[in-house]
Amino acid sequence: MRAARVAGTLLARLTGVLFLGFALFHLLPGDPVSALTRGRPVTTEDLATIRAGFGLDLPLWKQFTSYVTALAHGDLGTSLAAHRPVADMLAERIGPTLLLTVSATVLSVTVGIATGVAAGWRPRGIGDRVGTGAAIVLWSAPTFWLGMLLMAILGVAAGLFPIAGMRSTESGGGGVLDVAHHLVLPCITLAAVQYAQYHLLIRSAVAAERHAVYVTLARAKGLPDALVRWRHAVPNAMAPTLSLVLTNLGFVVSGAVTVEAVFSWPGLGDLTFEALRGPDPPVLHGTFLLLCGSVVTADAIADVVLRRFDRRGGTT
Questions:
Q1: Domain parsing of the chain, residue ranges
Q2: CA–CA–CA angle 34, 36, 41 (5° rounding)
Q3: Following DSSP, what letter does each residue of 44-104 receive, concatenated?
Q4: If you ran DSSP here, which 8-state letter would residue 295 be given?
Q5: How far is CA 126 from CA 120, 136, 257, in A?
Q6: Domain 90-315: which topology?
Q7: DSSP-derived secondary structure letter, 157
Q8: pLDDT of 35-45, one tens digit each?
Q9: pLDDT per residue over 201-231, tens digit each?
Q10: pTM of this prediction?
Q11: Which residue has the higher pLDDT, 11 or 161?
């Protein structure tokens, strides 16, 4: 029953995403056909023929019906600019986006939990003040500003890391180490804001758990401080952090749009930016559906996992 309810909610949200995406991108200013033919001598009849070829001369409700019917068959349409299936373009770009977002998530969770636990275990200490202050600053910093700052300092001024792309094409690069070298700056940028959330949340949870009865009892038994912290306090403080990690999985993917645009990382975000300049509605529909769908799906997964987690916690 609960699984059916979660599936129904997920379907309703995905349907809402479908309606919203179609409406938003048809309200964008500019004519995609005029953009495609810019700089070329075309007549009014030529423009009308091109619109008819892409189905843009149909009423909106017919365009939407055709789009949903094609989507039900796995067809996301054809790019107006590239003249390629949108599904193929998304498949090419999803790999770099997953590489960036997974790396940033692992980095932010690992560092955020480590520093948050240390800060929460000794609140108001020097480590807490420095770590929490840095987390607040990073959380409030705009992602694009932080990316440009890192690019200017570590990329341009120091010359330590590449500032654009995923591979060193000019040197024939493209190996694992080369890709990892290009990944550093965008990964740090995307991870910084996420890290701040995990640090602040686990810090508050650990600070509250350190006064719990079971922690006092463990200390009275003479257990080492580190053992009391990591075996007793941290596991009980992880529930809200687990919730945030699961919920943020979808937002990290959608949040990569800004980072990819800043660093020209060839993922879904960069593809979205290119499609907005067109505009290229079929590509925008596809990226919007995929990015928003990842948020909605991650939220549904988080709901199921956390319900099971809470149920087990109540029986132990």
A1: 2-72, 90-315
A2: 70
A3: HHHHHHHHHHHTTTS-HHHHHHHHHHHHHTT---B-TTT-SBHHHHHHHHHHHHHHHHHHH
A4: H
A5: 12, 15, 36
A6: MetI-like fold (1.10.3720)
A7: I
A8: 666 666 777 77
A9: 888 888 888 878 888 887 788 888 888 888 8
A10: 0.76
A11: 161
